[in-house]
Amino acid sequence: MNMDFLKAFAAAARHRNITKAALELRTSQPSLSKQLKKLEQTYNVKLLQRSGMGVEPTSDGMEFLTFTESILKQLQMLERRFSKPLNRGRMSRLRVGSGYALSASILPKLLALFERRHPHVEVDLISNTPVVLEQMLVKGTLDIAVNSVSPSAAELIGEP
Q1: Dist CA 135 CA 126 (whole Å)
Q2: Rounded distance, CA 32 to CA 43, Å?
Q3: What DSSP state is assigned to residue 27?
C-alpha cells in the first residue's frame, strides 16, 4: 500500500472531482486516476462512483475514507513531530513536455523565470512530438505539456 494512494483517494473524495484533486496534489489527472484504480484493485472494492459531474464516494468509499482520514492525520502528526528542518526545504519536481520548437525558443526563458520565482521546484523540460507527449501525459510521466495542437485523448484537457 502506498500513502500517496490514500492521499489521492482523500483528495478525490473531498473535492468530488478528479481534476481538482489532481491540481491540489500537483499531479496529472491520468496519474491520479491510475492511483485510484490501483487502490480499488488492491482492496477489491469500489470506492468512488464516477459520473458526468465528477465522483462520489460509494458506501464502502465513505467507510474507507473514515479510516483514510485517520491514517493521514496520524501521518501528519508524525511528520510534524519528527521531520528534520533539512526536509522542510525539499525540492518539488515539475515535469514539462513540449514540442521541439517551443523547447528551443520560448520555454527556456519562461521556465528560468519560473524557477527563480519558485526556488524549491526543480523543472524538467522534455522535448518530443505531440503524439509522444500526449502518451506521456496519459501515463503520468509528465505533469503538463505545452503544445501547438489540442489533445485527442479524452482524459486530457487542452487550453488555448
Answers
A1: 13
A2: 17
A3: S
Pure H helices in 50-148: 59-82, 85-88, 100-104, 107-117, 130-139
pLDDT band for position 61 (cuts 50, 70, 90): very high
Helix axis angle for 3-15 and 18-25, nearest 10°, is: 130
Q: Looking at the whole model, is its pTM more than 0.70?
A: no
- Residue 48's beta-bridge partner residues? 57
C-alpha cell at 131: 503524439
Which residues have CB under 8 Å from 45's CB, separation 6+?
A: 60, 64
End-to-end, the C-alpha distance of the chain in Å comes to 38
Cell of 34: 491510475
Count the Cβ atoms, other than its own, within 10 Å of residue 77. 10
